[in-house]
Structures are given as structure tokens and as C-alpha cells.
Design a protein that fits this description.
Elements (H helix, E strand, L loop, with lengths): L7 H8 L3 E2 L16 H5 L3 E4 L5 H4 L11 E5 L4 H15 L8 E5 L4 H8 L4 E4 L3 H13 L3 E4 L10 H14 L3 E3 L7 H10 L2 H4 L12 E10 L1 E2 L2 E2 L20 H12 L10 E13 L1 H8 L12 E2 L2 E14 L2 E12 L7 E7 L3 E6 L9 E6 L5 H16 L6 E5 L2 E5 L8 H18 L4 H20 L2
Parallel strand pairs: 1-4, 2-3, 2-5, 3-4, 5-6, 6-7, 8-14
Antiparallel strand pairs: 8-15, 9-10, 11-13, 12-13, 13-14, 15-16, 16-17, 17-19, 18-19
Helix pairs in contact: 6-7, 7-14, 8-10, 10-14
Length: 467
């Protein structure tokens, strides 16, 4: 059976400033109008039901404009314990420790308590995706800003709730935003920026289902390290009715990148999307593997619907082929249980242009680190194309200092200095910085809101087509 070690809690209370509210919740915060203007302007975080480690990664760094006191509303249990443990690891790390102070509110009515008390102005959501859309709508109706981990909706039945949330957010002047970390990966940034230089890339080819204009494939693993520690996943993570299938979960990132790279800062419409095909398949997870990553020596009853011959079948894999404004795109999500020794999650991407293809690979040859390549398609000589590419790289170096290129078997590798690279965990802080900047401006750009609506429309239509 699962055993929870709670002996660390006393140390957290003493060392990290964690305070548990009395009764079902903590004391109500003073209403906004009773607070000094300077305090009202400060960003104050509320973390709601943090069942996924992404909730903690938002707090991996401190932010000048964010109050160090964070109110956490959640049911008592393993998910909350793991979240607090991660925050404490950030607070006690030897290199640039954080100084977050957690105020914990538990009880059966924690969500209603949060909506009534509202001790902050930005709600961070990363947890059980079955409840997430309802949480989002409730927070927006209460006039709270929301920074939500993906996906914000996992099935078509709840998609209208998300659309309602966006409508009310606009009416109330609050910001609803999802955490798109992959936009901050430097190879994706450079792939996008090189595609916007016609002398190098030409124009994006329309593509075909057999050879899409854009292909993005993401490979993930159930067993992995996070912040240098083995990741413990909640048992519900393996229930696609709670976490979401791969075709609507990790695919959120890939569909977002297609939009962000192919039509940068353009206002898209749901009518721009046409699903050509979609499919789903399962990854088997044995009882021993399940215990390794969850601590449970058995499958909970809610997973029995997905158990075949004693082995859990998790529908985390999916593929979508679709057109966006006539451009054919293909996105694929694959979940394995565990990476080979020395390997990690991987990403493959290609943008096909009339003059060159821009390719990101992250396999064994790249030491499982993303590398960007430029493959020439134009008829000009290698020497002439290289000169053009050098001019483009020099131009990009004004923004990304230290870039260079080197010849390789398939074309040219874009050599990126370490100073420009950041790991996946840092990208959560990068997204938070972007969101904080939007909060300071008081609004999201119109294209950002349109991109989220079209993205989830695409995923919901693919979900239906995969049936």
C-alpha cells in the first residue's frame, strides 16, 4: 500500500514559514479596497489544488513584483504534500535559494473558501485536468487572473466552459493565459526567426499529408527526474479521464508552436482549421512500473476500465494531421515509460521552406539536446547560400549574442552558446515573466487570446476525429 511520509511537515512549518489555516481554511484576507494602493498593485499568488509538479516550477525563481507569500488552497493529501516538498527544496537549495512563504488552506470547501476570501489576484493552476476547466471558469467569474498549465480543457463537452471563461475575462478585464513553455526553447525561437527571413527560408511550403509543411513530434516518459529528483506522479495522472489523452494534453504545446511559428502574432480563427486525420493508441504500464512512479502497489479502482490482462493501458499517444490556413501540419505525441540510460524527453520539428528546411533534432547523435539545422533546398551553390545564412545569423546575433554556424553532413548546424540555453524547468519562469509583463500592461494581445481559442478548438476537433 501507499505510505505517506509526513514527518517532514514539522520541519517545513518551522523553516519555510508554512501556515495552515484554522478550521476549513485560513482567515479571510482584507478586501482589496481595504488594502494600501501599493499592496493592491503587487502580484499575489494563489495556488489552487496543485496536483502536478508544474505548479511548483512557477515558483522556481523569485520575481520582483510578486509577493513572497503564496496562499495554497487544496485538499489535504499526497498531492499537497508533494507540492510543499518541492517548494521547500527551492527554498533550501544552496544556489540562489528562494524565499517563498506558503499559507495552506485545506478542507472540503477549499475552492469556495478561496473564491470568498481571495487573498491574492493571480491563481496558478496545475493539477487534475478533469477539474481544471471548472476551476478556470469559477476563478474568472470571481474576477481573478489565471495562469493555467496546459491543457485548459481535455474533452469537447467542457470546451464551451472555456469559451465562456474567455468571454467573461474580457468583460472583467482579467487575464487568462496558459503556460506554453516550448516557446522559450532557444532552438524553437531560432527556427521561428529564421523562417521569417525570406533570403534563407523562402516561403513556407503548403505541404501534403504525406509530407507536411510542419511536423512536430514530442516523446515523453512517465519515469523521469525533475529538479534532480525522481518524479513522483499522482496515480490519477494515468487516468486519461483526469489527466487527458496525449492528443489533447502534450499536443497542446505542439499545436501552439505550429501557430506561433507559421503565423507569428496573427489573429487566427477556428474556421482556419480543418482536421484531416487523428488517431490515438496506448502505452502499457505494468504494476511494477506503476508502483515505481506512484508508490501504489495496485491500480486504483478508477483505472480498472483501462486494465487489459493485468496491465494498464494509458492512451497517452496521439497524432493529428490538419491544415491551418491551408498549410498542412502534423503533430505527434508519444509516451514511453522510461528513457534509455542517458536519454531524456525529446522533440523533433521540421519547417519546410522553398529555399531551406529548418530542422530540430534531439536524439542520440545530439546527446539528447535539441540542435537546429538548416538544410538547403535552393539551387544556388553551398558557398552562396552559406554567405546568405551568415548574414542572417549575424542579424539574429544582435538579439541572441554568440550565434554561429558550422557545416555538417546535412547542411549547417546553428551553434548556440550555452549562455542562451535554459532547461525545461527554467522555461516555466520565462512564461511567468511574460505573463507578469502582460499583467503590467493590463491586457493580453488580441493574437494571444485568439491563439488559445484556436488551439483548443483544434485539439477538441482532433479528439472527436480520433474516435
Amino acid at each position: 500500500m501507499l505510505r505517506l511520509d509526513r514527518t517532514w511537515m514539522a520541519a517545513l512549518i518551522a523553516a519555510a514559514g508554512i501556515v495552515f489555516g484554522s478550521g476549513l481554511s485560513g482567515a479571510p484576507a482584507a478586501p482589496p479596497e481595504a488594502q494600501p494602493a501599493a499592496d493592491r498593485a503587487r502580484v499575489r499568488l494563489i495556488t489552487l489544488d496543485p496536483g502536478h509538479y508544474h505548479a511548483a516550477l512557477v515558483q522556481k525563481n523569485m520575481y520582483e513584483q510578486v509577493d513572497p507569500v503564496v496562499h495554497i488552497y487544496a485538499p489535504a493529501g499526497a498531492d499537497l504534500d508533494e507540492h510543499l516538498r518541492r517548494i521547500e527544496l527551492f527554498n533550501t537549495r544552496p544556489d540562489r535559494p528562494t524565499r517563498w512563504e506558503s499559507r495552506v488552506h485545506t478542507g472540503p470547501d477549499f475552492f469556495a473558501d478561496m473564491l470568498r476570501e481571495k487573498p491574492g489576484n493571480v491563481v496558478v493552476l496545475a493539477g487534475n485536468n478533469m477539474r481544471k476547466t471548472g476551476y478556470i471558469l469559477g476563478c474568472i467569474k470571481a474576477g481573478l487572473n489565471v495562469l493555467a498549465d496546459k491543457p485548459m480543457v481535455i474533452n469537447p463537452a467542457k470546451y464551451p466552459m472555456l469559451l465562456e471563461a474567455f468571454k467573461i475575462a474580457e468583460e472583467k478585464g482579467v487575464l487568462l493565459y496558459d503556460i506554453m513553455t516550448e516557446r522559450h526553447e532557444i532552438t524553437s525561437i531560432l527556427q521561428r526567426e529564421l523562417s521569417m527571413i525570406p533570403e534563407v527560408f523562402g516561403q513556407l511550403r503548403p505541404g501534403t499529408p504525406e509530407e507536411p509543411a510542419v511536423t512536430k513530434e514530442s516523446v515523453h516518459h512517465f519515469s523521469k527526474l525533475v529538479a534532480g529528483k525522481p518524479l513522483k506522479r499522482p496515480a490519477w495522472f494515468f487516468d486519461v479521464e483526469q489527466e487527458g489523452e496525449g492528443i489533447v494534453d502534450v499536443a497542446t504545446h505542439l499545436v501552439d508552436l505550429v501557430q506561433w511559428e507559421c503565423f507569428p502574432e496573427q489573429v487566427l480563427e477556428p474556421s482556419d482549421v480543418r482536421i484531416l486525420s487523428a488517431r490515438r493508441w496506448a502505452t502499457p504500464v505494468t504494476p511494477a512500473q506503476f508502483e515505481k512512479v506512484t508508490g501504489y502497489d495496485h491500480y486504483p479502482d478508477y483505472l480498472s476500465k483501462d486494465v487489459r490482462d493485468g496491465v494498464l493501458q494509458v492512451f497517452g499517444n496521439g497524432e493529428i494531421i490538419y491544415t491551418l490556413r491551408g498549410v498542412v501540419a502534423k503533430v505527434s505525441v508519444i509516451w514511453n515509460f522510461e528513457a534509455p540510460p542517458g536519454a531524456a524527453d525529446t522533440h523533433y520539428s521540421i519547417m519546410r521552406g522553398t529555399k531551406a528546411d529548418l530542422v530540430i533534432e534531439q536524439g542520440q547523435r545530439q546527446n539528447y539536446k535539441p540542435v537546429l539545422y538548416v538544410h538547403k533546398r535552393s539551387q544556388e551553390s553551398d558557398e552562396a547560400f552559406e554567405k546568405t545564412l551568415l548574414v542572417a545569423i549575424e542579424k539574429l546575433s544582435a538579439k541572441h549574442n554568440g550565434l554561429r554556424i558550422k557545416k555538417c553532413e546535412t547542411g549547417w548546424e546553428v551553434v548556440i552558446p550555452d549562455a542562451l540555453k535554459a532547461d525545461h524547468e527554467q522555461h516555466f519562469c520565462d512564461v511567468t515573466d511574460t505573463y507578469l509583463a502582460y499583467l503590467a500592461q493590463g491586457a493580453l494581445p488580441r493574437w494571444e487570446i485568439a491563439a488559445m481559442i484556436v488551439k483548443y478548438h483544434t485539439l477538441m476537433e482532433a479528439y472527436k476525429a480520433s474516435r
